[in-house]
Amino acid sequence: MSDSSSESAQNQRPHALTAAVLEFDLRAETEKLQQQDSFRDGRPTGRTLVKEPDLRIVLMTLKAGARLEEHHASGPISVQALSGTIRMRLAGRGAELTQGQLLMLEPGIPHDVDAVTDAAFLLTIGRTRYQDVSDHHEPRQ
């Protein structure tokens, strides 16, 4: 975010839209996530950037060799690789994503994610009931 008062508000309520326009430095946010113990320990680490009734945007990081176990979302999702390489297994096929690639999944498709290298990706979840969406990637405060 570019405005320090907006940034302060965002830090206090990381899941609420705090302004009509939000701006994120994804490179800096990724670096912060990669400094956390959970990332260094090989656990999925992320930050929910936007949490609205019809939209969630989550920045995720995975250390090389780390895995997000099979799961599914109750709404459509997109996965956009920002850095590194991730491999997804879904619906009887695999997909490998590198920086700049985007994958779209319809609701309910089981998938898992493996980090081939240290990786960051942006997960966008569209309109959903969110009962199958977890915040387990968020650091404990």
Describe the structure.
This protein has helices at 4-12, 26-34, 37-40, and strands at residues 45-52, 55-62, 67-71, 77-83, 85-90, 93-98, 102-105, 111-115, 119-125. With 141 residues, it is of the alpha+beta class. The chain has one domain: Jelly Rolls. β1 and β2 (55-62) form a beta hairpin. It is 16% helix and 40% strand. The radius of gyration is 15 Å and the shape is globular. The protein is built from three helices and nine strands. A five-stranded antiparallel sheet has the order 1-2-9-4-7, with helices on one face. A four-stranded antiparallel sheet has the order 3-8-5-6, with no helix packed on it.
Structural class: alpha+beta
CATH level 4 superfamily? Jelly Rolls
Count of distinct strands: 9
> Regarding quaternary structure, how should these chains be classified?
single chain
CATH class, named Mainly Beta
CATH topology-level name: Jelly Rolls
State the helicity in percent bands.
10-25%
Order of helices and strands: HHHEEEEEEEEE
Rg, rounded, reads 15 Å
Question: Stretches where pLDDT falls below 50 for ≥5 residues?
Answer: 1-15
Strand proportion? 35-45%
Average pLDDT number: 85
Instruction: Indicate the overall shape.
Output: globular
How many domains? 1
Largest sheet: 5 strands, antiparallel
Q: What's the N-to-C terminus distance?
A: 21 Å
Number of helices: 3
List the strand order in the largest sheet. Answer: 1-2-9-4-7
Q: Which descriptors apply to this entry?
A:
globular; five-stranded antiparallel sheet; Jelly Rolls; alpha+beta; four-stranded antiparallel sheet; 141 residues; 9 strands
